[in-house]
Amino acid sequence: MAADHHEFDTDPALPAWQSMTYQVFNPDHTAGAACNRDGEIVGLHLTDDARDNGDTWLAAEILRLARLAHMKSRVALRAEMESNGTHAHTIDSFDLPTEASYRAMEAAEFGTSAR
């Protein structure tokens, strides 16, 4: 007889999606933001150099990094849904970014080439 599958079983080979955070730093690492799985900001990194750039720059940088961290968490949600066997058309209906589209977005924000 096959073993019962329980909703709360965990597979050690799968990522712990619920506890993951997604971090983004600006190119000079003076500012960074982190989001949890739900896209909520859970961390902020600011160096003295970042604070010395003034409030207007700092506010814009924090918003930019928070937006990117949120999008990074949405890329992970796409990966989680794919890992769970969700159909591609269902995933696409949530308008979740792909890894490639996220990298392009980050490159456009920071003026770097996509990796």
- How much helicity do the residues have? 40-55%
The profile of the biggest β sheet is: 3 strands, antiparallel
In terms of quaternary structure, the protein is single chain
Provide the residue-averaged pLDDT.
Answer: 87
Our estimate of the beta-strand percent is 5-15%
H/E element sequence: EEEHHHH
Q: What's the N-to-C terminus distance?
A: 48 Å
Main sheet: strand order = 1-2-3
- Could you name the ranges where pLDDT drops below 50 across 5 or more consecutive residues? 1-9
| Alpha-beta classification | alpha+beta
- How many helices does DSSP assign? 4
Q: What is the alpha-carbon Rg in Å?
A: 17 Å
Number of E strands:
3
Describe this structure in words.
- With 115 residues, the protein is an alpha+beta fold.
- Helix content is 45%, strand content 15%.
- The protein has helices at residues 48-52, 55-83, 88-93, 99-110; strands at residues 21-25, 31-36, 41-46.
- The chain has a 3-stranded antiparallel sheet.
- Strand 2 (31-36) and strand 3 (41-46) form a beta hairpin.
- Helix 2 (55-83) runs antiparallel to helix 4.
- The radius of gyration is 17 Å and the shape is elongated.
- Mean pLDDT is 87; it is low at 1-9.
